[in-house]
Amino acid sequence: QVQLVESGGGLVQTGGSLRISCAASGRTFSSAAIAWFRQAPGKEREFVALISRSGLTIDYKDSVKGRFTIARDNAKNTVYLQMNSLKPEDTAVYYCAAQESGSKKYDYWGQGTQVTVSS
Q: What is the rounded CA–CA span in Å between residue 69 and residue 60?
């Protein structure tokens, strides 16, 4: 069992930065791939970034490449998403999700943290 809690969201101006965190409890965190998703009002949830269990495999949504950086600290059971050069279209609720080893789906989800980018 893994419980995920996001934090660090807030209001920022266009071009600003935020770092959001996903803190996990549970002994399987270090063996889980972690992803960030986001959902804007009236839109479907979309993938943003992924980091593998080892941290060696990372992937990003095309529109955030070069602006967002995902990282994990297994000693702290935490995954971070550093977001730079933020745009109004980045406004959304950001969720982290964990995929356990061998699973083909995201098994656990956090409650989300709101990120609002003002123009």
A: 9
